[in-house]
Specification:
This protein is α/β, with parallel strands linked by helices. The protein has a single domain (3-275), classed as 3-Layer(aba) Sandwich (Collagenase (Catalytic Domain)), CATH 3.40.390. Helix content is 42%, strand content 15%. It is built from seven helices and eight strands, in the order βββββαβαβαβαααα. It has helices spanning 75-89, 104-115, 147-156, 174-182, 196-211, 219-234, 236-275, and strands at 3-4, 14-16, 27-28, 50-56, 59-65, 95-102, 123-127, 165-173. The strands form two sheets. It has a six-stranded mixed sheet with strand order 2-7-8-6-5-4, sandwiched between helices. A two-stranded antiparallel sheet has the order 1-3. β4 and β5 form a beta hairpin. The chain is globular and about 80 Å long. The model is unreliable at 1-13 and 18-32 (pLDDT under 50).
């Protein structure tokens, strides 16, 4: 992951585009592959993939996996990385965040649409709140925080019970993560050969920190962001344990639901055998 300006094409980069500023503000890495969004057919709405939620209080992580995307990391491991990043960045809760695991074509399309850049990129972030919604950190340049804005943002998270603020969305190209890992272009410096799983987790953490107001346009903040990423990845054990517990509870709930459905079906068949009727499917 090597830094460059968003106006440059990139194949090994990450960027952040805000809803109120679709031009975005940062990206990583020069382009090394001729790739255009025009090379990609549009994704039909009925093929957007399955979305499932992992609850790691106070956060709900909604993970969408596009059809045909290679499996390199479990969704619960992805959720653990997201939860660790949200905790490290001081994200307010309860809240939700969306993670989409996709491929080069969709990232190239979004890169062109929101960043004005050509070529595939590895991760894009779409924050729903400005940086002022999160705890301040060193940015290298003065950034005054309007107390009225801070108060309004705090109120935005004071939602009725059962409701969550949506922090934003992160979309990762699994295809690009695999290529970067295999070709020795992974890691924070873009010259590391490691596993596709490790690259995926780094990209997920990087994108999540962007959602939480972090950036790397200034050297001071870039160094701080890279240090925080390393801290998050090193602290994942505890979050993975929580994600594994969530997976175990989810499996137990599915098994209980299946047993309950089987019991209802058996009872219906027993009843029908007594009166000669045929139970409805």
């Amino acid at each position: 992951m090597t830094e460059s300006h968003a106006s440059e094409a990139s194949s090994n980069d990450s960027a952040v585009a805000r809803p109120e500023d679709p031009a975005g503000d940062a990206a990583l890495g020069p382009s090394t592959e001729p790739f255009s969004a025009s090379d990609c057919p549009p994704v039909p709405e009925d093929q957007e993939g399955a979305t499932s939620s992992v609850y790691l209080p106070p956060f709900r992580i909604d993970i969408t996996i596009r059809p045909g995307v290679p499996h390199v990391v479990s969704r619960h491991k992805v959720a653990a990385a997201v939860r660790a990043a949200l905790d490290a960045a001081g994200a307010p809760g309860p809240a939700s965040i969306g993670i989409v695991l996709s491929a080069d074509c969709e990232l190239a399309d979004l890169n062109a649409l929101h960043m004005g850049a050509s070529g595939a990129t590895d991760v894009l972030s779409f924050p729903f709140f400005p940086p002022e919604a999160f705890p301040p950190h060193e940015r290298g340049v003065p950034m005054p925080r309007d107390p009225w804005v801070a108060a309004a943002l705090k109120q935005a998270f004071a939602l009725p019970p059962g409701l969550r603020a949506h922090l934003g969305d992160v979309i990762v190209s699994v295809e690009r993560a695999i290529a970067q890992a295999e070709q020795g272009r992974g890691g924070q410096t873009g010259n590391l050969a490691w596993t596709a799983t490790e690259e995926m987790l780094l990209l997920t953490v990087h994108g999540t920190l962007h959602v939480c107001g972090w950036d790397h346009a200034e050297p001071v903040e870039e160094a701080a962001m890279r240090t925080l990423e390393q801290h998050v990845l090193a602290s994942m054990d505890g979050h993975e344990a929580a994600a594994e517990d969530a997976a175990t509870q989810e499996e137990a709930s599915r098994e209980a639901a299946a047993r309950e459905a089987a019991a209802r079906e058996a009872a219906a068949r027993e009843l029908s055998s007594r009166d000669g009727s045929v139970p409805e499917a």
